[in-house]
Amino acid sequence: MQSFEIDKTDLLRIKTALDGDDAELQEVLKDYHASEIAILFEKLPQEAKERIINTLSTEIASEVISEMTEESHPEDLLISLHPEKRSDIVEEMDYDVATDIISQLDEQDQQEILEDIDQEDATSIRALLSYHEDTAGGLMNSEVICVNINLDKKGALDEIIRQSEEMEEFYTIYVVDDHKTLQGIVSIKDIIKARSEAKVRDLVQADFVYVKAELDQEEVAKLISQYNLTTIPVVDDDMKLLGRITVDDIIDVMEAENTEDILKISGVSEDEELSGNWQDAVKSRLPWLIVNLGTAFLAASVIRQFTHVEEELPIIVAYVTIIGGMGGNAATQALAVTVRRISLSDLSDRQTYRTVIKEFLVGLINGGANGLIVLIFAIFYDKNPMLGLVLFLAMTGNLVVAGLTGAGIPLILKRVGIDPAVASSIIITTFTDCIGFLLPLWLASQLLL
Amino acid sequence: MQSFEIDKTDLLRIKTALDGDDAELQEVLKDYHASEIAILFEKLPQEAKERIINTLSTEIASEVISEMTEESHPEDLLISLHPEKRSDIVEEMDYDVATDIISQLDEQDQQEILEDIDQEDATSIRALLSYHEDTAGGLMNSEVICVNINLDKKGALDEIIRQSEEMEEFYTIYVVDDHKTLQGIVSIKDIIKARSEAKVRDLVQADFVYVKAELDQEEVAKLISQYNLTTIPVVDDDMKLLGRITVDDIIDVMEAENTEDILKISGVSEDEELSGNWQDAVKSRLPWLIVNLGTAFLAASVIRQFTHVEEELPIIVAYVTIIGGMGGNAATQALAVTVRRISLSDLSDRQTYRTVIKEFLVGLINGGANGLIVLIFAIFYDKNPMLGLVLFLAMTGNLVVAGLTGAGIPLILKRVGIDPAVASSIIITTFTDCIGFLLPLWLASQLLL
Q1: In B93-230, which residue ranges form alpha helices assigned H by DSSP?
Q2: What interface predicted TM-score (ipTM) does this complex get?
Q3: How many angstroms away from the CA of A151 is the closest CA of chain B?
């Protein structure tokens, strides 16, 4: 099986069916999984999407809207539907998904949707809307299977079957006491296997990993990945069970965090939508470029100080650009390794120290090796061994600076609590440009003129 | 709860306990989860790790070794253990984890381990070893819960309980016919809820997503994420069930693929270990830097062609470095967005076309805006409006080239089947350096001299 790609044939088929009557459309839609229809939606105009949603059963329609990516704006589709259809769809959704979609609407539209739906659902969604979207609370689903610790096998099984009626799938069963305080977890397997007189109390695993609702979603992702969990319970300060986060929610968080990292390192604003239009791309990138223009002027002002060197040794200009550029590249290498390492695990003091020493040594060796090549070139092509020596020293020095800043700046940012990924290659390159221009020109003015 | 970080206190506690007797050590180890001991292992010498593993129960020891990261080389620890202890530990492991660890050893050590363990386990692990580690087969676990489609409720439940004895957790139950051909899936919930005379045949969901053993792991990850699956069955060409892949295995794949992307874009060899030593870092990065040194010479040779311009207009050198550098940064922005977008989903022809047009427009606007700033600077600081015009045109031109190469090169690579992430900023920057040096110098020679 291959992952589903939007194919012209599929799109054409849907478009042709849209020209026909509802029965025809329904027949064609039967061939597609809800998540496939969600992908096709990316290519269809608003009216077509509304018509399809109205043709589908509430169950499938709700799945399709749940599967739509944030960038295809499921909230716009939802709000445009007939209030009755809309309420049916929202009531069918998982609370966490419904909350994510509704949270994108303005206050008034949110209220309109919530007033129309079943009151119990509305209360749950309102509670979820109160958590910040980047925290465990914003990520959790409040629908959990949860049994009282005093139940016996039969009572627990009945309760599980009753509660699971509304859920598509469940993994872990949570055990609470009479005050709804979380006591542990129990697996359905252990309940089935237990003797009929067994109580939940005898089967509960009291040693489990949980998170508070305020915990940042990145920390939740680290915990789930570190302890290989399928699901993690979310509690309030009194250990009352609020909901659970499942591993598939975490996959979306990880994808988003990774996209953010790669964009920030490259000097793109973290909220640029990958498939966004050019106007948004300009808004996201131009500020960084203008900041960089300022720093480039700074670097270029170094060159302005040494016009006397350039006049006497015009060839040095070509070499200066090489040394500046090489420093930028080496710094980007050190930066990528360090940022990725920090984002996967937290570094101890000793690890931090060793990372900086490592990048210093890497800079020294790589700078020396590249410096040697430039030295040889200057001797044989420009017939100027002293120039070669100047370039060798400048290249080595600049690559050491590249290693130290590429690793050091994200590490320092992490210490002071700033996201290390904002130490984009654009900022680090400023250092290596300045040093890369200054070193050869200053050494030349000292040793050659 | 916070994710576990290696703390000096924990390390000191373990080290002190290592000086004491086994009972003392056991007492201290009780306070740590298996995955926490695996993290502490990163900081402990080989003898200490062996001693701890020998002190722990087989069950916990097996979990600890399973949780060790690839970079802490669990295979070295495993092979150093007493053969009897080692066999007990391997037999306790999930087949897919055992296979991953054993596959890192040389042929002779692999045979030694496999000859010592239970024959059924050895056969399963040998079968898994035959799949390439980057495919569905290399990722799957062959331990699945699987029932015959002709069983009734009681028979199915008995079978599930019997098969689940050896498994820590299970999600989906697979249904096969008498020829072991996969017929569908069934949830434990549906079996429990079914009337006692129901057959598995009545409960099976015949519409499910599966993969062939040869499918690339990245495709498996896309499927699991696209269809929000917890687990996916792996089959051979005759639809015989071989095993299953769970979502937590996919998290590790995603982490690894993301690390690869970020490193490749930054010109670091994809297999550099993030916490590796400086010698390996030099080996991984120096080749890229030397390639770049060649391309930098190419770019610098452009400058050598225009020494007459520099002599008559020395100030242009400072501006040339600004325009070259800005082009590199804009190209890195376009590259990051495009590479990340490609790695999350496949682009249609139309999307490809629109991406290139978008980056062209972004380059035009961002280039024009930055060109304007430089133009103003040249007018007021250098009192040279014609120089300003030259710089404006050169900046705009270079940022258009940056957008087109930053988006175009990864898109072309993808089309011809090369990983687009290797279009590292180092390679893209060569284009913008050459054009960034050529444009202002050539325009100046035409318009100013």
Answers
A1: 95-102, 107-116, 119-129, 136-139, 153-164, 188-193, 200-203, 217-226
A2: 0.73
A3: 18
